[in-house]
């Protein structure tokens, strides 16, 4: 679409230049051909063919006025001095500033005004009052030049605004892609990780009832993941959370699922669920989910402490593992999350006005902590 509009703009500009050239011919040739122009300057005899050539050169110079100014300036000066036609001078004064093809345009405009005064003085159809000549020259040369400067500044402003809009659109598209990637990561990784762990536990047990329980867990997580994906794809069109998006009330269930897969997890939960915004609650859920997934992958035998509590107007969430503990016979690929979880989670929390930090602890474990406002700011105000 952008290339189409650019092509239309170029054709429109070319058509305007052709029309200007035709206008110069229409205004300049009839007086020369029918003897109404002044054929001779007081100091120079000008044959008619030279006048016709000067008018044609001025007309042709209109076709290149957007790229270079000096052929147009020279041709219009010759047209004014040889044929007495001053309209091309006004077009040249406007074009050189509207296209910004002359650096020190006031000096060039002053020279064009001098040529205009000379041509006006030599014309037998106008008075030769010096003041009137100067007023006409300044008005008809400097005024088009000033209008041209305004046009150039306006076009520059429009280009800058369009460039800014494109840059904002690209940033918004990149942010949306990151948001979608984060949602897909958070939705899929947790479910797949739990399914892999349960599948590993099935291989290590011979009890039929335990196998059935683990198989049901795998089925439940798979069905839930599919449901969340369908709702996510629908909700992403509206930038809303899907109906199945978990909030803080899902954190105890996350802890129970982790305990069922062999993790030793302690939970401290003190959150006013009824006053918590849906976005903040969902972000809190994702923090705990990501923290427990990372413990499963990197420290499956460690003791884990999950804290989710409100202090004032903020919600403090943390998942801390000791880095020590018994080994467990379950294996999860280290690259199962693709390395996108924590950076995407940090961006999610930052969009709500919160802060996410993570890193090793002095005891050799790992801590994931977040501070999230209970009432995130409106995205339109950020």
TrEMBL record:
Catalyzed chemical reaction(s): ATP + protein L-histidine = ADP + protein N-phospho-L-histidine
Enzyme class: transferase
Residue spans crossing the bilayer: 14-34, 70-93, 105-123, 129-152
Chain ranges of the Signal transduction histidine kinase subgroup 3 dimerisation and phosphoacceptor domain: 176-240
Keyword Transmembrane: yes
Gene3D superfamilies from the UniProt entry: 1.20.5.1930, Histidine kinase-like ATPase, C-terminal domain
GO molecular function (one): kinase activity
Name the UniProt record assigns to this protein: histidine kinase
PANTHER family attached to this UniProt entry: NITRATE/NITRITE SENSOR PROTEIN NARX-RELATED, NITRATE_NITRITE SENSOR PROTEIN NARQ
The enzyme's E.C. designation: 2.7.13.3
């Amino acid at each position: 679409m952008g290339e189409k509009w650019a092509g239309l703009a170029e054709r429109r500009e070319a058509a305007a230049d052709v029309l200007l050239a035709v206008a110069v011919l229409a205004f300049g040739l009839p007086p020369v051909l029918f003897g109404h122009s002044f054929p001779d300057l007081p100091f120079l005899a000008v044959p008619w063919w030279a006048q016709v050539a000067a008018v044609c050169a001025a007309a042709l110079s209109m076709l290149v006025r957007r790229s270079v100014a000096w052929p147009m300036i020279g041709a219009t000066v010759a047209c004014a001095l040889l044929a007495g036609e001053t309209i091309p001078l006004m077009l040249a004064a406007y074009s050189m500033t509207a296209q910004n093809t002359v650096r020190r345009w006031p000096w060039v405009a002053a020279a064009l005004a001098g040529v205009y005064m000379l041509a006006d003085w030599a014309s037998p159809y106008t008075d030769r009052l010096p003041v009137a000549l100067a007023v006409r020259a300044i008005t008809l040369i400097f005024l088009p030049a000033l209008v041209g400067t305004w046009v150039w500044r306006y076009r520059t402003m429009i280009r800058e605004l369009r460039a800014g809009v494109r840059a904002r659109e690209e940033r918004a598209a990149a942010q949306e892609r990151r948001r979608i990637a984060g949602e897909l990561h958070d939705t899929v990784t947790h479910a797949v990780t739990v399914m892999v762990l349960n599948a590993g536990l099935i291989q290590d047990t011979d009890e039929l009832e335990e196998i059935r329980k683990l198989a049901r867990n795998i089925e439940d997580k798979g069905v839930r993941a599919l449901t969340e994906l369908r709702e996510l794809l629908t909700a992403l069109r509206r930038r809303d959370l899907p109906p199945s998006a978990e909030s803080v009330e899902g954190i105890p269930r996350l802890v129970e699922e982790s305990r069922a897969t062999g993790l030793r997890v302690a939970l401290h939960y003190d959150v006013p669920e009824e006053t918590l915004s849906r976005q903040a609650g969902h972000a809190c859920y994702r923090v705990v989910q990501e923290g427990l997934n990372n413990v499963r992958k990197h420290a499956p035998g460690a003791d884990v402490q999950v804290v989710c509590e409100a202090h004032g107007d903020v919600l403090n969430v943390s998942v801390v593992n000791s880095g020590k503990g018994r080994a467990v016979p379950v294996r999860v690929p280290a690259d199962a999350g693709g390395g996108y979880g924590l950076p995407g989670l940090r961006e999610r929390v930052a969009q709500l006005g919160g802060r996410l930090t993570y890193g090793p602890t002095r005891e050799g474990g790992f801590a994931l902590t977040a501070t999230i406002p209970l009432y995130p700011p409106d995205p339109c105000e950020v």
